[in-house]
Write a structure and sequence with these properties.
Blueprint lengths: L3 E6 L5 E5 L7 E3 L2 H15 L2 E5 L5 E6 L10
Parallel strand pairs: 1-4
Antiparallel strand pairs: 1-2, 2-3, 4-5
Length: about 70
Amino acid sequence: MSNTRHVTPNSNGGWDSKKGGSDRASKHFETKKEAEKYSRDLSRKEGSELFIHGKDGKIQRKDSHGIDKFPPRG
C-alpha cells in the first residue's frame, strides 16, 4: 500500500481525500480548503506524503509528513 494521501477534485463536484492507490475516497468535501485541512491532519498522523491536486488533476504542491531518510545537511 502506498504511503501517500491525495486531495483530488471529484467529477461530481467537491473534493476528495484519498489514500494513495485507492479508488474510493476516504472522505468527500464541498471545498478544497476543507479537504486539505482534513488530509493534512491525517497525513501527519500517518507519516505520509500529501499531494494537493488542482481542478485539472495535476499536482500543485506536496508536503512530506514522514521521516526523511536523507535529510539535508546543516
